[in-house]
Amino acid sequence: MCGISGWVDYGRDLREERQTVQAMTDTMACRGPDAEGAWLAPHVAFGHRRLAVIDIEGGRQPMTAEADGGVLAALTYSGEVYNFQELRDELVRLGHAFRTRSDTEVVLRAYLEWGDDFVSRLNGMYAFAIWDTRREELLLVRDRMGIKPLYYYPTPDGVLFGSEPKAILANPLAERVVDADGLREILAFVKTPEIAVFRGMHEVRPGQVVKVRREGLSKSRYWQLEAREHTDDLPTTIRTIRELLDDIVTRQLISDVPLCTLLSGGLDSSVVTALAARALRGRGTVRSFSVDFSGYAENFQPDDMRDTPDTPYVRDVVRHVGSDHTDIVLDSADLMDPAVRAAVLRARDLPLGIGDMDISLYLLFKAIRERSTVALSGESADEVFGGYRWFHDPAAVGAHTFPWLAAAQTQTGLSTRGEFLNEELLHKLDVPAYRADSYQRALAEVPRVPGETGLQRRMREISYLHLTRFVQVLLDRKDRMSMAVGLEVRVPFCDHRLVDYVFNAPWAMKTFDGHEKSLLRAATADVLPQSVVERRKVPYPSTQDPAYEHALRAAVADLLSGEPAIGCLIDTAKVRSILAQPVGAVSLQGSRTALEGLLQVNAWLDAYGVRLAL
């Protein structure tokens, strides 16, 4: 995995802008610690930071394709194309000669052979830019599910782009301004496609191509979810899912560097670990890692989302598949480390985090990176197969809003991201109206099967909302926390073939045995311990240590004693009321949301020099 940056400007010679391009590229150093490169031509400049995973010596970037002494096209690329070997073989038969073993060169040659349509042939996670020197045209491309990020910022004479907002913000043409809609997006928890919070900045939508020419910018989709009749019976559906998963996991084990799995003891991560162990049989032992908190299992208290701690189930999977396992154990001091919290914000670029769950994930990935360069994750199985509890909650299913928001409203002790804001600002922002508008626009996109009604129609809507909105929140989080330490995380359940197939399976089939994720359980039960097959969905762990909440409160109190950057936005009396509430013997994630949000927004305003245009 890598970090990319670039600049197209039809009104100036960018060969004279090397220093600015270098500054943009330097912000991506965390994503690519192994090498860097730049390529500059009259109206285009590409930067690249490389995390070497495949063809360590040969895959240097930016990469160019040349003929008759001139450059035909240049590429700066982040990601992995898992079917690159098949594409390479086809391109060789068509007459292409390759200098490297990398998938990067396959992508570049595929463009030269098939033009813009080449993207439909790629299977993988990727974000890249191609400059066609013959047409003086830029293509920005993002993978179908949005696993890899890509942002752009149109300018009067071209565009800036980068893997993360920080790359664009390093260019003086980009303003660090956030308007009311940007702040609404931060608070709403809806993940509106293409919205990047900073005014003037956009995110390439999953499955989208953005084309930049002298005449202007255009956008098109090369993939999106489609609705169709599912004609396979239940046994065929289960068998097809298993065949897909075997193929997907096997493809994603290809690496020239050490590889591992993330293992929580839940169904999704256990499936990935077990299938990886089977695929590696005879070639080695799969390595697995999990995160835990000091005293968590011994003092665990069930809450609205978590019935059980992870540790016993992790142990069962390790024994069952024989993985080489490591627990990364954290305490509250680790979670409150100022340097770590600053690194997490820097990785995010935005105050969109979920408190200790971001921080612990960052620390987990940092520890893994000392032993492995690539990790396989169970992320997105809940969105694909219908695993979250609110999929099965009639009140959330029937609510006229995003189901995860409806479910959150019923949780006990839950505070909100914007609870600390002053009433005048809350009235002006009207976040509920922003959410309602976002919800209606999302529903209008949902593909339909003619005649589909009732529960099946509604569950298609809910699946679509998760696969196009909610999953983006989690993929963004996983990408930023992993790439902040130079770790590549692969997401097998995001393979578009699997997503498309399961999206069209009837809801009755997805719940045929009365459990969530029935199809996934049935397809993989033979490789899992029975305890995991029967385990109910439990989210990523969150510390329950009251010492962590006490530390958060102390940090907020200290903030109030000075002149915080967020001072003009908050209601001090509200904040003091939050601080006056007692801390229980167990601290739950929901009770800390407002505290976490206040601290992070303040740190963001201060560190990024954001100007609010409200």
UniProtKB/TrEMBL annotation:
<keyword id="KW-0028">Amino-acid biosynthesis</keyword>
<dbReference type="Pfam" id="PF00733">
    <property type="entry name" value="Asn_synthase"/>
</dbReference>
<dbReference type="InterPro" id="IPR033738">
    <property type="entry name" value="AsnB_N"/>
</dbReference>
<keyword id="KW-0547">Nucleotide-binding</keyword>
<dbReference type="InterPro" id="IPR006426">
    <property type="entry name" value="Asn_synth_AEB"/>
</dbReference>
<dbReference type="InterPro" id="IPR029055">
    <property type="entry name" value="Ntn_hydrolases_N"/>
</dbReference>
<dbReference type="Pfam" id="PF13537">
    <property type="entry name" value="GATase_7"/>
</dbReference>
<comment type="similarity">
    <text>Belongs to the asparagine synthetase family.</text>
</comment>
<comment type="pathway">
    <text>Amino-acid biosynthesis; L-asparagine biosynthesis; L-asparagine from L-aspartate (L-Gln route): step 1/1.</text>
</comment>
<dbReference type="InterPro" id="IPR014729">
    <property type="entry name" value="Rossmann-like_a/b/a_fold"/>
</dbReference>
<keyword id="KW-0315">Glutamine amidotransferase</keyword>
<protein>
    <recommendedName>
        <fullName>asparagine synthase (glutamine-hydrolyzing)</fullName>
        <ecNumber>6.3.5.4</ecNumber>
    </recommendedName>
</protein>
<dbReference type="InterPro" id="IPR051786">
    <property type="entry name" value="ASN_synthetase/amidase"/>
</dbReference>
<dbReference type="InterPro" id="IPR017932">
    <property type="entry name" value="GATase_2_dom"/>
</dbReference>
<feature type="domain" description="Glutamine amidotransferase type-2">
    <location>
        <begin position="2"/>
        <end position="215"/>
    </location>
</feature>
<dbReference type="InterPro" id="IPR001962">
    <property type="entry name" value="Asn_synthase"/>
</dbReference>
<keyword id="KW-0067">ATP-binding</keyword>
<keyword id="KW-0061">Asparagine biosynthesis</keyword>
